[in-house]
Each structure stands twice: as C-alpha cells, then as structure tokens.
C-alpha cells in the first residue's frame, strides 16, 4: 500500500527505535544530532564524566563517538557497565567485602577491554591494518589477561601437603626418589618401615590488582599503535553500579587506566546517582571531579526547553527529521520519499508550528520521551496532521505508561507529588518551582526526579522573597501535570481525555517570573504542624 505524505509520516513516527543500544549502528550514526558544541566537548583527549538524565542520549552519544574515533584512526572500546561480569548480583552481595566486590568489578571491566581489543587486533591482522603492530598488541593483551586472572590466597582456602617415607631391604637393591611433594625410596628387602605426615592449611582466594603489571601491559598495548593514536575507554551506565562501590571502582580506574598517557577514559553517569569520591583526612579514594577528570558536559544543558527554547526546538526538529528519513528511506517502507528538510517535515507532520513547540515542551529535554510522545500522538492522529490536542493527550498517556508506575510504588513520593500540585503549583499557576540545591538529596525528591516526573530547568536562580539565596529551578513533568490536574483544571486552552470524558486542561509555561515566587519548602511537607 502506498500512503499519502501525512499518513506516511505518521507511520514513520510510530516506528521509531526508542533505545540507542537496540538500534542498527548505521541508523544510530545517521540519526545522531550534535547539540551545540556537544561532540567537540566529547572529542577532547581528557578524562571526562558526561552527565545526563535517563533518556537524554548518553548511550547514543557514546556509540556515535566510538564510530567517529574509529573512522578517525583511534581505537575506542564501548562498555555497558550493566552487562559487565558473569553475575550482576555479586556486586550487590553485602556478604562479600566491599573492596573485594570493587576489585572484581574492575577486573571484569579490564576483561571487557582486553576481549574487545583482542578482537579488534585479530580483525586488524586480517585486514593488514597499518595502524597497529598486531604481534606486539597481542603479546601485551596476553600479559593483561595474565594480570586479570591473578588471585592471592589469604584467609580460608584448604590445601593439603603430605610426606611419606619407607625402606625395604633384600639381596638386590634399587632406589627411587620422587618429590611431588612425596618422597619415596625402594629397595629389595624382606623388612620394611613406613612413616607418613599430612599438613592442612586454609585460606580465601582473593582477587587483587597489581597496578604496576596492569599499567605495564596497557603501556605496551598503546606502544603497538601507530604514532599519535589513542585508546578511548567509554564506560556507559555508571549509575547502575551500587553506590557504595562507585568511589572504590573510580579509584581503581584512576590508578590502573589514568596513568597511561595514550588512554582516554569517558564515563556516562546520572549526576545525583553517582559518587565518584570518598574523602578521608589528607587524602581521598576515587576520582576528583574537575581535577582527575573534567565534568564539563551535561546533556540537559543542550536540550531543556526552559534553558534555551530556540536551541531545544532546533535539536528536536533535526532529531525527529533524521529518524523519519532513516525509516522512510528503508526498502521495506512503502510510501512517498521523505521530506527534503526538517522544516518541511514539521510543516507536513504538524497542524502548526505551535504544535511542534508543544511537543518540545512535552519532551522536557529528554529525547526518549519526545520519541515516545510523538509516536503516540501520530497513532491518535492517524491520517491527519498531529494537533496540540494529540500532543497533550499523548503526553498524558506516556506518563501513565512509563512514569506513573515508578511513582506509585513509593507512597511517600506519591504524596509529595500531590502536595506539590496542591500547595505550590495550583496556587501559583505555574508548573515550576524553586528548590534549595540540597533538596535533590531528599530521597522522595530524588525518586520523582529519577522517574522523570520532576525536571531540572536551571541552576542558581534568585528569588524575590529571599534575596541573596540561590535555588535550582524545577518543573513538573508536562504529562504528569496534565494527568494530575485533569479533574480539577480550569476550563481553558484545550481538551484532554479524562476518566469521564473530555476535560479542559491548561498547561502553564515555564515562566521564570512565576517560578521565582514558588519556593518549595520541604519542611512544610514533612512537618506541617511546625508552620501553623
């Protein structure tokens, strides 16, 4: 069947791949959008931590960086830390000492690097790649493998040593000596005497890291590269590691990988779910952010509508357009040729430019949310262009499908969310508010942030009510606002489907003038009696 342009665009929008790790590599390359100076910042030869919320595109950016580095002549190894090791439960097993768990995790990471580089070296040998001395590289990788498999016996492993002696005499004499570790002698004799002894020792097989050996193997590996080439280690999903292990693993990485000049380490993490350093008197364990590794990239800075509306719209316009082109250009897609520009795509797919702006607002700076919301909106629009009503209804449905379930499992976080709506948002006619920077340390606030029902808009905002104090500006999720206020919203702007039929809902914009008057005081939530 050959679809008309509007229908074809809606079909394409419904076929988006929502997660980068499940996408085709060529599609990932063609759909990557460089938000401002993002790629230039990632492409620096500095150890670096890249922050961003779930769904902001950290994985996509790392996979794209890996491909670009390979094309440019360097060597890049991408590792998803969720998949490292044979048993993910081991790292969270509190019966195993903390240092042992972290050491095993580091050795698993090094094993991933060793395995990936061995595969690459063998491939280079097949292709006669001049960028690497394959023989030297494989020897270095074998040495690294030896270092990884080292164990030290301390504590509780049982071993046994035995010794046995005996004599026998006869008319003829023969002697035999063997040490394995037993000693025996034999002679032809009619008389014999035998004596035995057994010794048992116990201990625990403990993994350990010989940083000198690991570093030497890595240096020999990089010496096998052509001049000016580097090995880039891209570690994704850092926040999947148990929080108590993170500083120790960070310290082990700093000691084993950072000292080699030709190795560059990049780590993708969620900021408030990461702990890179544990300080102690006169010293620290881990990676000191800003000194050992820079942290000058936060994907939220490039994509949040409230930070820079024009930049956010440009990013999402290009992102959706490239995905549409990739799908409509595939042989299996039966329909017209894709639009010739991102601007034509928006004009053909949406009823007006304001509709696309509303989609960017609904995404709240999260590309994964944008892809899902526009897919649901296209499904609702069917053969028509997508309208503002479609976007807002889709945002509400996406909240119910993806985010609400993460909130309702925590009753206290759910109560806080309702309190924010009732006491802060509703009276101020804004979905944004100010929160003290330490507020993200609150478990319930953190839970809502993880579920993407709260979004950080901007840091360092001043308030008219508290001059001299700096706050962070947050906003309630677009779809969450629609969902929670549908039953009691003012009769304005648009209709969204409620439980009992169409209900008018007004989704206020993130107006910083209004936000500055809405300060969230968590003390009033946890101890309301003290404020009466």
Total number of β-strand segments?
16
In one word, what is the shape? globular
What is the typical, i.e. mean, pLDDT? 79
What low-confidence regions span 5 or more consecutive residues with pLDDT below 50?
A: 167-192, 487-504
Oligomer: single chain
Q: Which percent range fits the helix content?
A: 40-55%
The main pleated sheet reads as: 5 strands, parallel
Strand order of the largest sheet: 2-7-8-1-11
Q: Whole-number radius of gyration? A: 31 Å
Structural class: alpha/beta
Q: What percent strand?
A: 15-25%
Number of helices: 19
Q: Could you tell me how far the N terminus lies from the C terminus, measured between alpha carbons in angstroms?
A: 67 Å
Write a brief caption for the model.
This protein is of the alpha/beta class and 532 residues long.
Task: Describe the protein in words.
The chain has 532 residues and is α/β, with parallel strands linked by helices. Helix content is 43%, strand content 18%. The chain is built from 19 helices and 16 strands. It has helices spanning 5-13, 25-31, 38-42, 58-72, 98-127, 134-148, 211-223, 246-256, 300-303, 309-328, 342-349, 353-363, 367-381, 388-408, 411-428, 443-450, 478-485, 512-515, 522-526, and strands at residues 48-51, 75-80, 151-154, 159-169, 191-201, 204-207, 231-236, 263-269, 277-280, 283-286, 294-298, 432-435, 454-462, 470-476, 494-498, 501-505. Strands 2-7-8-1-11 form a five-stranded parallel sheet, with helices on both faces. Strand 15 and strand 16 form a beta hairpin. Helix 1 (5-13) packs across helix 10 (309-328) and helix 12 (353-363) packs parallel to helix 14 (388-408). The longest helix is centred in the N-terminal third of the chain and has 30 residues, at 98-127. It is globular and about 65 Å long.
């Amino acid at each position: 069947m050959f679809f008309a342009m509007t229908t074809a665009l809606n079909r394409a929008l419904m076929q988006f791949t929502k997660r980068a790790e499940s996408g085709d590599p060529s599609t990932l390359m063609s759909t990557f959008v460089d938000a401002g100076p993002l790629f230039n910042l990632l492409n620096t030869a500095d150890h670096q931590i890249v922050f961003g919320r779930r769904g902001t595109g950290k994985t996509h950016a790392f996979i794209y960086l890996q491909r670009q580095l390979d094309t440019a002549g360097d060597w890049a190894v991408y590792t998803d830390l969720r998949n490292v090791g044979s048993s993910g439960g081991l790292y969270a097993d509190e019966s195993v000492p903390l240092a042992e768990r972290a050491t095993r995790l580091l050795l698993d990471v090094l094993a991933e690097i060793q395995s990936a580089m061995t595969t690459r070296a063998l491939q280079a040998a097949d292709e006669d790649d001049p960028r690497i001395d394959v023989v030297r590289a494989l020897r270095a990788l074998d040495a690294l493998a030896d270092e990884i498999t080292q164990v030290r016996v301390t504590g509780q492993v049982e071993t046994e040593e035995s010794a046995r002696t005996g004599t026998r005499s006869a008319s003829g004499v023969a002697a035999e000596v063997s040490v394995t570790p037993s000693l025996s002698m034999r002679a032809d004799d009619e008389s014999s005497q035998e004596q035995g002894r057994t010794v048992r020792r116990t201990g625990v097989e403990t993994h350990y890291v010989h940083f000198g050996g690991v570093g030497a193997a890595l240096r020999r590996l990089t010496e096998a590269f052509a001049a000016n080439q580097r090995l880039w280690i891209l570690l994704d999903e850092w926040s999947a590691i148990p929080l108590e292990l993170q500083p120790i693993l960070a310290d082990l990485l700093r000691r084993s990988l950072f000292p080699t000049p030709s190795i560059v380490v990049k780590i993708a993490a969620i900021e408030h779910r990461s702990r890179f350093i544990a300080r102690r008197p006169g010293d620290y364990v881990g990676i000191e952010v800003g000194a050992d590794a820079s942290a000058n990239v936060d994907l939220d800075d490039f994509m949040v509508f409230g930070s820079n509306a024009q930049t956010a719209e440009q990013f999402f316009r290009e992102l959706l357009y490239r995905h549409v082109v990739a799908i409509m250009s595939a042989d299996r897609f039966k329909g017209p040729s894709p639009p010739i520009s991102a601007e034509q795509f928006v004009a053909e797919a949406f009823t007006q430019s304001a509709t696309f702006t509303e989609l960017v607002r609904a995404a709240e700076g999260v590309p994964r949310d944008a892809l899902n919301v526009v897919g649901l909106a296209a499904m609702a629009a069917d053969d028509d262009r997508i309208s503002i009503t479609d976007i807002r209804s889709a945002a509400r449905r996406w909240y119910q499908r993806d985010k609400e379930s993460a909130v309702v499992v925590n009753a206290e976080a759910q109560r806080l969310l309702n309190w924010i709506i009732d006491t802060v948002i509703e009276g101020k006619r804004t979905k944004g508010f100010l929160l003290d920077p330490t507020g993200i340390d609150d478990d319930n606030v953190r839970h809502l942030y993880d579920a993407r029902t709260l979004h950080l808009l901007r840091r360092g905002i001043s308030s008219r009510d508290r001059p001299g104090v700096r706050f962070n500006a947050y906003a309630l999720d677009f779809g969450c606002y629609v969902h929670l206020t549908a039953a009691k919203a003012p009769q304005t702007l648009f209709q969204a489907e409620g439980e009992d039929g169409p209900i008018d809902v007004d989704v206020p914009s993130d107006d910083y003038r209004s936000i500055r008057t809405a300060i969230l005081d968590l003390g009033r939530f946890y101890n309301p009696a003290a404020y009466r």
